[in-house]
Amino acid sequence: MRPEGSDSDGDEFAPDEVRQLCWSFMDKYSTCLKELEQALDSKKKRRIADCIIELYWCDRDVKAFHSGELLLQLQSYLRWQDIAVERERIEEKLPCLPLRLNATLQSSDTVVITCTNLAGSEVAELTMDAQKERLLDVRRNIRESVPLPKSAPKHASWKLISPLGKVLDKSKDDLPVGEALGLLTYAPSLL
């Protein structure tokens, strides 16, 4: 186990550096949430998508830094708790709630998909056949096993986001899961 305030290479961070990093992330989250709310109010779909993707990147960075220790530090700040409440309030305005799909290829034919909501919480893990099952099957599994938050608008639905931050629209539903999530590529067969 690494000492508190060190990175994966064992380099130590002074408490002041960690505190400054926490404040920088809280500023970034606050800015992203304000921009998301403005985009929602003006109904700019592309800007809404960009803000959601930016929030996901922030979530990824916070969780990755110090192997999650930074997230634990952030949770001790009252401001972070206020940001979480604000994020939940803004999430309620989204007619389509983004669900980030992170995928790991377990074998040539098995993919594990971790589903993360806008708040950064893992809400499901699916194991699927990377080549035989389609993105449509992922949608069905999510619809059946991942409930929307109680605070979601009445007719809300999940909007699937790829590991690369791209919206997985229904035009990709016939793609094999591995290909749709960027894990496998297929060349047309030559007969």
Could you name the key traits of this structure?
alpha+beta; 2 domains; four-stranded mixed sheet
Give me a quick take on this structure.
The protein is an alpha+beta fold and 191 residues long. It has helices at residues 15-42, 45-64, 69-74, 78-91, 135-145, 177-180; strands at residues 96-107, 110-117, 122-129, 157-161.
Layout of SSEs?
Elements: H1 15-42, H2 45-64, H3 69-74, H4 78-91, E1 96-107, E2 110-117, E3 122-129, H5 135-145, E4 157-161, H6 177-180
Parallel strand pairs: 1-4
Antiparallel strand pairs: 1-2, 2-3
Largest sheet: 4 strands, mixed
- Please state the overall shape, judged from the principal axes of the Cα atoms: globular
Number of helical runs?
6
Q: Find the count of extended strands (DSSP E, 2+ residues).
A: 4
Count of all domains: 2
Gap between N and C termini = 55 Å
> Over the alpha carbons, how many angstroms does the gyration radius reach?
19 Å
Q: From the helix content, strand content and strand pairing, which structural class follows?
A: alpha+beta
Strand portion? 15-25%
Helix content: 40-55%
The average pLDDT value, as a whole number, equals 83
Quaternary state of the chains: single chain
List the uncertain runs.
1-9, 186-191
Strand order of the largest sheet: 3-2-1-4
Order of helices and strands: HHHHEEEHEH
